[in-house]
Amino acid sequence: MHRYHQTMQQAMEPARHQGIAVLLLTKDEAFAEVVQHLLRPNGYHVSLAPTAEAALFLAPRAAFKLALIDRRHKVIAVLRHDQALRHIPMIALHPQGEPCTEEDTLEDLAAGFDMVIDSYRHREWLAIIKALLRRQEFQAAPAREFRVNALSMNLDRHEVRVEEKPIQLTPKEFQILRVLLQNPGRVLTRQELLNLVWGEDYALEEHALDVHIHALRQKLEYKPSAPQWILTIRGVGYKLSAT
Fold first, then answer.
1. Total domains in the fold of the chain
2. Contact 40/65 with Cβ under 8 angstroms?
3. Lowest-confidence region among 22-26, 124-128, 181-185
């Protein structure tokens, strides 16, 4: 069997190799060979998909960081609606020898691509791909500081402040407040808080959570008996007021 067709069959299995997982969507044998020979020696694992359906099958299994799409396949709208693919960078590739006008580029960007590559300078390809991945990693990095009303938390310094005054919390109080600050205005059930702070397999009475909430209010609220920030939603759980 021709090596390209072997690779296309392997693409229907989740990627198990080391390297940054990249989706390549094309039916063009020669074009696929060029892209693979460029990326694989530079630390990328390329999974081939000949159709949008094949890409959607692979997506939840391969954890792709980037999609390279032959712009001759009008599949960007389908891929952008997939939960596993919608947030990754997608680059439109113009195969060598194919015409590429300014209108083509504008059309691709309007369709939802993050970048259009019509150059055949491979070092430029690699630089663009690395830059997009760095930007994606930066955007996906979890927040390290939270601020709601006069409450603030800095994870790097492990600090909590009320109007810039430092507040000493126990480790569990810190974790509970962190969850609340990450979800301002959202009602969290007692069970959700227990699972997020202690873990789903940890057996703990809900009353223990109430004790920690009471202690938090004593340290954070101006008037703990009439809290303004950490609110009880009767019969449900708690929320951090965002107003």
1. 2
2. no
3. 124-128
